[in-house]
Amino acid sequence: MINDNFFGRRKNTPTRPVPPGQYLEDGFPVLSAGPTPRVDINTWDFSIEIAGETIGTWSWDSLNSLEQTDIHTDIHCVTKWSKQDTNWRGVAIDTLLADAQISPPDGYVMAYCDGGYTTNIPAKDLMDGKGILAHTYENKPLPAEHGGPVRLFIPHLYLWKSAKWIRRLRFMEKDEPGFWEGYGYHMYGDPWLEQRYNGD
Ligand SMILES: Nc1nc2c(c(=O)[nH]1)N[C@H]1C(S)=C(S)[C@@H](COP(=O)(O)O)O[C@H]1N2
Ligand SMILES: [Mo]
Q1: Could you give the domains of the chain?
Q2: Atom of ligand 1 nearest to the CA of 32
Q3: Cα–Cα distance between 121 and 130 in angstroms, integer?
Q4: For the segment 150-187, what is each residue's pLDDT rounded down to a tens digit?
Q5: Measured from the CB, is residue 116 less than 6 Å from ligand 1?
Q6: With a 6 A CB cut-off, is 118 part of the ligand 1 pocket?
Q7: In percent, how much of the chain has pLDDT > 90?
Q8: Closest by Cα among 63, 17, 32 to 162
Q9: Counting atoms of ligand 1 from 1, which one is nearest the CA of 28?
Q10: Ligand 2: distance of its center to the CA of 197 in Å?
């Protein structure tokens, strides 16, 4: 048998376990429910809303002036591809809340995007560095088709929770379905538990 070292490491050899039902993808597929929105960085802003009140708004420059967080991780799409060892940089949601001098609220969050996409996430899944506003992928500006200039990035959940072209997070007491969740996707979306659809 010809061993892998002859060709170098085979690309589809996992570097760590892959969630059930997933296969490894070398490329980076684009999955968008609509067209890629044109986003002007000069007028772009991001805001956080709690109990109907905007507690903070950040421009592109103010986002970049905050402490930056690097994440090296695998990503998992509900359409069954996973991609290993990806590198992202952005600003942790913790950092934004601290900047606004707000202690992390309980409950749930709805993410709102340019283009109208929404998705829901438990608030605690965004804390402790688990959720970032990503603007850099593999040391380059995040490409528009992958959500640039800024996307939410929550790699421990299926990738549909990582809202591209994000503009706003709204904290809410009770969970509500976002766009795909309204069409039967799982309210939480843990890839290790294969929470693809409602009832999984
Ligand atoms: N704004 C927005 N964010 C989105 C989507 C979308 O259609 N619009 N698609 C989601 C889905 S279903 C997936 S699988 C991932 C795909 O991210 P990618 O295109 O960077 O691979 O983005 C998620 N975030
Ligand atoms: Mo998806």
Answers
A1: 39-193 (3.90.420.10)
A2: 7
A3: 12
A4: 999 999 999 999 999 999 999 999 999 999 999 999 99
A5: no
A6: no
A7: 92
A8: 32
A9: 21
A10: 12
